[in-house]
Structures are given as structure tokens and as C-alpha cells.
Amino acid sequence: METETIQCSIELPVSSEQLFHAWLDSEAHTQFTGSEAKIIPAAGGKFSAWEDYISGETLEIDPPRRILQSWRTTEFPDDSPDSRLEVLFEVLDNGTRLILNHTGIPAGQAESYRQGWEDYYFLPMREYFSYPRVG
After folding, report:
1. How many domains does the chain have?
2. Within a domain: residue 35?
3. Selection from 68, 103, 66 nearest residue 83 by Cα
4. Residues of the chain with pLDDT under 70
5. Separation between Cα atoms, residue 53 and residue 9, nearest integer Å
6. How high is the pLDDT of residue 52?
7. Are the beta carbons of 104 and 85 closer than 8 angstroms?
8. Residues contacting residue 125 through CB under 8 Å, at least 6 positions apart
9. Is residue 135 part of a domain?
10. Containing domain of residue 15, as a range?
């Protein structure tokens, strides 16, 4: 089965520890995306987001540097295996670069997912992490 790969990144003015935690914490993930996420924050833990549109399993964690997940949406063909999402956290002088390496995307869907990462993750993350949190 033919697959595609995308890589995209965002720089945010917060620590790698904060971003790593937010990616794997149900409440924080829900807050920064604006849609409910359910995450078991451990290797072998299942997750879902965007009202179960996205689902998968966390395969590896290396705090606060790397997360590897199996990942699929309800738009994947039934016979398509899960894709792989590698989330990297690169420390910068003024924050962190979050890099997504998304491999194994069903053929013809890569650009749609690239736009989805921008619209449903990076745009809300820019807003959420650019302002100080109170409390």
C-alpha cells in the first residue's frame, strides 16, 4: 500500500517540558486544541482526540525530547495500517521547536493532514502558548 510522509514544525515560547506534558496530558491537550482529548500518558497508552476522529497508541516516550505514536483518523481506509507520528521537542534559546514527522499516511491524504496540523494544532497552540497562564 502506497503511503506519504509530511514534516512540519512550530516554534513556541515555552519549555520543552511544558510542551511535552501538554501533548500527553488529557486536560492540557483539550485546552490547547479546544476539543476533548483522552490520553493515557505512558508507552502502551491509548489516546483519542477531536471527538474520536483521531485515535492511536503511544509507542515510545523519551521526556522531554520525543514521543512516538501510532496514529489514524476515521478517514483512513479500513484496510490501512496506522500511520506513525514522531513528535520531537528541540530546545531553543527562546522556547521550543516542536517537530512532527508523520509517516505512513494513506496515499493522497498528506496535504490534507499537513493543513490539519496547521489549522487544528499549530494555530491554536500559537494562541494558547503565547499568553501567560493565570493560576
Report:
1. 1
2. yes
3. 103
4. 131-135
5. 22
6. 96
7. no
8. 10, 12, 32, 33, 98
9. no
10. 3-130
